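Hi V.,

You were right to ask for the full record rather than a summary. Here it is.
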Amino acid sequence: MMRYKNIIWDYNGTIIDDAQLAVDAENVVLKSYGLPEIDLEFYLKECEMPIIGFYRKIFPNFDSYDFSEIAQRFLNNYDKLFPTAGVFPEAVKMIKNLYSQGVRQAVISGFESKRLKDSLKGFGLDGYFEFMSGSDDIDCGDKSDRAVAVCKRNGFSPRDTLFIGDMYHDYETAQKVGADCVLVAKGHQGADVLRRYGIPVLDSAEELLSYLA
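Predicted structure:
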């Protein structure tokens, strides 16, 4: 029997395979400011949410910059590259499996609402979620309040709910909701970083089937 009645999915890095894409988009931004580029290894080690903490690591004298302008430049570059993005097949398989078992599912993303809806539709996933929560904050801030709202709106009891993400902030979000959390180390933070916190960490969404049993 399934351990949870409700699943809340993070989107970027958990369902969408976009970490390298984010690095590529970030490097265009860094180049435009005359700053050194980064690689995926650095990104997986240093990325954090809210994202402003990461920018403080890669922009010397960060407070002298306009963060909203930086964020907008990143989004513009990300959007140009997004058609090359794909989804993790094992995550999609799990979403469909859970749906067939009657598990209620929701998805939360740093994407703004319309972009999230269009993206899910483009990947053929829009029919599997009872609720989709996008952000209208281009600065990619804390999503905990939106997660709490998703649970209240859908009647998700925290004790029957699991949050699936790819970053430590997803765990923080689950804590605020009062739900359990499992992280899949395929996204925007490396497995070695995630395992420092003593949180359940899987190497792939394929492992979710046995984890949820």
